[in-house]
Amino acid sequence: MTITSRLNSTFIPFAISLLLLCSWKVSVTLRSREASGLARQIQNNSTEVVMSRKFVMDGSDDILPIIALGVATHVVFHKYEPTRSTLGATLLFLAIEPSLPYLYFLYRANSESLSVTSFLSAGISSLLFRSYIIFYITLAVSIACYRLSPFHPLARVPGPTIHKITKLWGVWWCWKGQQHILNKQLHDKYGPVVRTGYTVRQDLRAPKNLLAITGEEHANRRRLWNRGMSSDALVEYEETLKRRCRDLVDALRKQSAEGVLDIGKWLNYFTFDFMGDMAFGGGSDMVKNGRDKDGLWKELKGFGLVRAILSHIPWAFSLAHIAPYTSRQLLVFREYGMACAASRVKQGSHVKDLWYHLTDEAGLEKSKPPMSNVLADGIVAVIAGADTVSEAMTGILWLLISHPECYKRVEEEVDRMYPQGEDLQEDFDTARLGKMIYLNACINESLRLFPPVMTNGPRQVPFGGGGRVICGYFLAEGTQVYVPPYTMHRNPQYFSPEPDSFIPERWLSPVDSAHNINQNAFIPFSYGPANCVGKNLARMQMTMLVTVLLRNFTLEFAHGFEWENWPMRMKDFFVVARDPLQVKITPRSATEF
């Protein structure tokens, strides 16, 4: 469990800055008479007087107001972090603030008829430069001291010093795509609870999709999703899933003539096509086209990296809307969603897809959901649903191919349930999928080792309850808590023996006493009321896909492909980025599907 806090404890730095400002005010008052007389001497180029220690801005005793401003600025930013709407004002404030004491004396000099040229030539420019250096050093030191102090709400929580001071270290690991590795290393060293940050705040301007809302609004929106992911709704989706599986089999048969292909790329195409069907009634045919002609997958992976980095500096997340690179990515998906939504509206309500439920075409709600909400949720369904299932499927295939004995056992189970020679074009009995015990054990074990979202998103200690005690540590209201599945799933306390090994037998029933499994620690789809609403649809896709692929093809790693270290090349950018999975596919028979 990794935690950051957003408690606004400002009394101590505020008190310090108040004392410093008061002392500066006294100093300015006592010396105001001297300044008036010295101004005339500066006008006469009396440099000896200017540089004397009697000059009001001679240096040493005027560091105090700059230090006061630095500490006071920390107080302000501690309570009010910048957002998209205040960015310009914040930068202007930081640029001008260190010069305020000197601007004040410049104003006094002007009132005494002192020329600006004489004022600057008296060494004020060098003092001004020094004030900026002192100000920014003071601001940085004040921030660091508070974050390391015993007065910080997370002071008792163990963690690396660098993480307590700045999130830039986490940003660096995000950039490398190894935050899942970092989290595991930190927990191995510090224990079940690790402090990985200081203060974070959510941006109230975040996009209003199901992932970005909480409380009653989340419950209302979730109700529509729950209808769309109910067991009855999943039955309605089966025909669409079968049709897309046939498209994939046909495409792979054609590609098998070339011998080697990146199976992960084709799984990307499949899941995007299918989730487009679910969310918008169609609009994507990547499998049939054999390519991502609009570059949507490239934009998706690029935005995943940006999102992962900005999760460490959430006040800057809204800036993604104005940055050229990320604004283009957001625009691409918005335009895609709007085009698909317009097409789906024309189709009417004869298709009971996910859109049917999100728009409440059945009329079960008191009022129709706003189209902006439906559009945002539809885009989330395509992006989140397509990527997670695709990456999970790629992980399953790598594990099966790299463990031939497991591959053979799953293949035998598939042939038992769906014998070769049986025509499945007209009648694919999906009820048999639930009876494939070993296949489902392999899927569970794959999701444990390669969860589709390795780090997961944060939860927050709710306001109004006075905080919570977790694992012996008190967490104040507003503290954000991360429970990274990759770390949890490889903890020997919950999964043993050999938590880093692929052992599907640990999931077989009755549970083998030789294997320790804590089902509560198995969270590939997160946990609780904010878990992945589409987990049952995801499992249905994975089970059917593995069955169809192993029934129709023999899969093996391509000659010369360095498959052993393939998992180590995975990147955690919130979404998973991975190298191509090069396989050789050979049709098993002439029977299709």
UniProtKB/TrEMBL annotation:
Superkingdom per UniProt: Eukaryota
Cofactor(s) listed: heme
MF terms (GO), sorted A to Z: heme binding; iron ion binding; monooxygenase activity; oxidoreductase activity, acting on paired donors, with incorporation or reduction of molecular oxygen
Protein name (record): Cytochrome P450
Pathway(s) annotated for this protein in UniProt: Secondary metabolite biosynthesis; terpenoid biosynthesis
GO CC term (a single one): membrane
A Pfam entry, by short name: p450
First and last residue of the signal peptide: 1-29
Binding site for heme: C532
Transmembrane residue ranges: 87-107, 127-146
This protein's record includes keyword Metal-binding: yes
Keywords of the record: Heme, Iron, Membrane, Metal-binding, Monooxygenase, Oxidoreductase, Signal, Transmembrane, Transmembrane helix
InterPro entries assigned to the protein according to its UniProt record, in alphabetical order: Cyt_P450 (IPR001128), Cyt_P450_E_grp-I (IPR002401), Cyt_P450_sf (IPR036396), Cytochrome_P450_monoxygenase (IPR050121)
Family: Belongs to the cytochrome P450 family.
